[in-house]
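Entry, Tuesday afternoon. Goal for today is a structural model of the target with guanosine-5'-triphosphate bound, before we commit to ordering more compound. Inputs were pasted exactly as handed over by J.K., no edits. I checked the ligand SMILES twice against the vendor sheet because last time a stereocentre got dropped in transcription.
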Amino acid sequence: MNNERVRFAVVGHPNKGKSSIVSTLSQDDSIGISTRSGTTTEAEEYGVEDERSGYRLIDTPGFQRPHKVLQWLQSRATTAELRSKAVAEFVADEDCQKRFPDEVKLLKPLVEGAAILYVVDGSRPYGSEYEAEMEILRWSGQPSMALINPIESDEHVEGWKNALEQYFKLVRIFNPMAADFDKQLELIEAFTHLKPQWSEHLKRVTENLRQRRETQKHNCSVILTRLVDDLCFYQQSQKVLDETQATIIQPVLEKQYFSWMIKREKEAFQELLANYQHFQTNLEVAELSLPPDLFDCEQWYMWGLSKTQLAVVTTIAGAAAGASADLLVAGSSFMMGAVAGSILGFSSAWFGADKLLTTKVKGLPLGGYEASYGPMKNKNFPYVVIGRFLHLYQQISERNHAVRESLDIQNSELQNQISSLEKNSQKELHSACGQLVRQNKIDFDKLQKTLLLLF
Ligand SMILES: Nc1nc2c(ncn2[C@@H]2O[C@H](COP(=O)(O)OP(=O)(O)OP(=O)(O)O)[C@@H](O)[C@H]2O)c(=O)[nH]1
Ligand SMILES: [Mg+2]
């Protein structure tokens, strides 16, 4: 490609989702979006991927007085060959800059060679009032694509298509709130048809985006492995002079222990958000309905494994590898049905106890004592940590950057996700979780690779 930069100006009526489209495609949640018409007042450029290998999107203010602007242009260009020159004159004209600031700002990138992405709302009917702005865009002479954003419904999409196809080379439907990653890539692939000299470059962009997504997934598995390892091994301890002091300090240790654990989990959530460039969400983390408190044990069966499943896992961990373990982890009926049911009794016997942690006071060789709180011994705990993280991962990795509402938390799917793993991976996961609660060192890389299968 020559040195020409690959740039697209996102233009249209006010309040039709221009900034939302820029936000989602550039994965930038700092871009101002609101129900108020006229939110964007300046043309701002955002990069998708880096400067050299990516492309640029320019968010612009909406058309305010397209009829007047068209009249001005028509007074300058009486024949077609003069039209793009008239648009350039309009942008450069000081009087126009004062009278039509929004149109000047939105047309300037086109004069500078940006391709056009014209955004309309497919839930509102088409009307001739849009024709002046489409005509102006056509006069710029730049390659153009129309994007129908079905803001509230797709009721008027067909009508829009009929009208837009007369003005634009390409017409696509694109919903910046709902378009998943593949839809976003499809759109960039459609951009390749706009300007032949950009097409190779844009193909590389989609390849890079795909690769980045894989890297992000891998990062998540590392963040989670570190988290589950840290939380399962953590212990709060302090030297004390005698057993009385140890008893007094116990509640303090307990409090410190819980607050460290909760802070550590939150840290991992923040890493997850940053990994997907959700920085605004990150800042407002306290206001989001994140998964309920890590130590809300009532929720544990929801986040981790159910009682029945735990019983089966314990049996698997205890059993020598063989037919009975294979039977228990087999297929989608994983941990369900008669086999699991029959051993439920013994499961509640060991799990029923409310005691989650070990509290110890031990004598030290050089005199004095050490009081400690933790580590967590509960067999469900590693699964709870994994379940909560995976749940948030699903929400965040699918969250478009134009979406600004709180996260919607549903039930964890951990149990089904685990059952969809291959038998051996299931076993590896259960064995690693067993090691963690027994405070045995785990093979970090092996667990990370197994966890990656759950993302
Ligand atoms: N439900 C839904 N709402 C959308 C969609 N696209 C945009 N919106 C909402 O429509 C409103 C306007 O979106 P913006 O992206 O700010 O629109 P804009 O064209 O940049 O607006 P101006 O900057 O004012 O010209 C916001 O409240 C968005 O949340 C969509 O696909 N679905
Ligand atoms: Mg805007």
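Residues 79 and 349 are 89 Å apart (CA to CA).
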